[in-house]
User: Which sequence fits this backbone?
């Protein structure tokens, strides 16, 4: 009996074991389960085995921070991470959360968006198609090779597809590296050789303009998904791109029109950037985008 009193007193003395009021939550002690990604939410759906996992780690009045949980399909940073953007995922979480609550635990979800790296899987899928394009261009090059000096006679038949291909490659490249894909890099990716069947410079530049047209939509989607730093990065990139295009002496043709349209992309991204900033959502510390703006 005496021993028990002594033990209780000792427990009282350990600060880690003392209660803590965390906002509206009355924690019985200060030992917290740190967020630990388990990558066992197959297909991003939390699995029933997580009921046992989390309830084993629950104590009465103890705080648990759940594994990083993605809030959008665009935010997946690694395989089989848990998700919270579909009804099915929400339903799958419920028995897990209920099990924690049943033992008196307090459960927080660590919501997550992996930002630009999250496009990894999508990019891998797209990359696997580059080989198909390469094959098609090589066949086209063979056909054109049979008609020496006739490249520009038939060029109109494939130029708009090539411009789309350039825009997609440029977008993928930007997602991966944050930089502009070079003309020579596109040629290399598609297996084109300047002497035999090269990439027309206008097709490259128009493709880059197409890519620029996609960026405002991308920025809005990213912000909606919780990536508030995206507008700053895109704004910096687009500002540099616009400045580089301005140095070109363009003819009054389609490319010129596409370039003129780029300023509208820039304006739209700027608006999102300022909106995010005014709402206090932009990341602090890096003023690169502001300087450009
Ligand atoms: C396998 C593993 C998965 C993790 N997953 C997450 C996570 O989803 N979210 C997070 O914020 N931290 C995560 N962490 C970091 C742990 O929460 C962190 O290691 C823990 O808080 C201990 O902190 P310390 O490493 O600074 O001692 C993970 C760590 C490991 C080892």
Assistant:
């Amino acid at each position: 009996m005496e021993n028990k009193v002594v033990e209780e007193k000792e427990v009282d003395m350990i600060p880690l074991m003392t209660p803590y009021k965390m906002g509206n939550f009355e924690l019985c002690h200060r030992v917290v389960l740190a967020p630990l990604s388990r990558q066992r939410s197959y297909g991003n759906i939390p699995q029933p085995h997580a009921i046992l996992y989390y309830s084993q780690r629950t104590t009465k009045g103890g705080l648990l921070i759940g594994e990083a949980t993605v809030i959008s399909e665009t935010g997946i940073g690694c395989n089989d991470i848990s998700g919270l953007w579909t009804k099915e995922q929400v339903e799958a979480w419920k028995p897990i959360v209920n099990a924690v609550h049943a033992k008196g635990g307090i459960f927080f979800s660590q919501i997550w968006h992996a930002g630009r790296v999250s496009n990894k899987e999508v990019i891998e899928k797209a990359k696997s198609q580059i080989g198909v394009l390469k094959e098609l261009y090589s066949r086209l090059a063979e056909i054109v090779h049979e008609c020496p000096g006739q490249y520009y006679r038939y060029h109109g038949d494939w130029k708009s597809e090539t411009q789309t291909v350039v825009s997609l490659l440029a977008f993928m490249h930007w997602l991966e590296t944050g930089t502009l894909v070079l003309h020579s890099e596109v040629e290399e990716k598609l297996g084109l050789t300047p002497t035999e069947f090269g990439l027309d410079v206008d097709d490259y530049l128009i493709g880059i303009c197409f890519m620029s047209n996609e960026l405002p939509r991308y920025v809005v989607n990213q912000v909606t998904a919780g990536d508030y730093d995206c507008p700053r990065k895109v704004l910096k990139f687009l500002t540099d791109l616009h400045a580089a295009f301005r140095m070109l002496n363009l003819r009054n043709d389609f490319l010129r029109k596409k370039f003129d349209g780029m300023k509208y992309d820039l304006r739209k991204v700027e608006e999102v950037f300022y909106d995010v900033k005014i709402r206090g959502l932009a990341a602090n510390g890096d003023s690169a985008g502001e300087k450009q703006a």
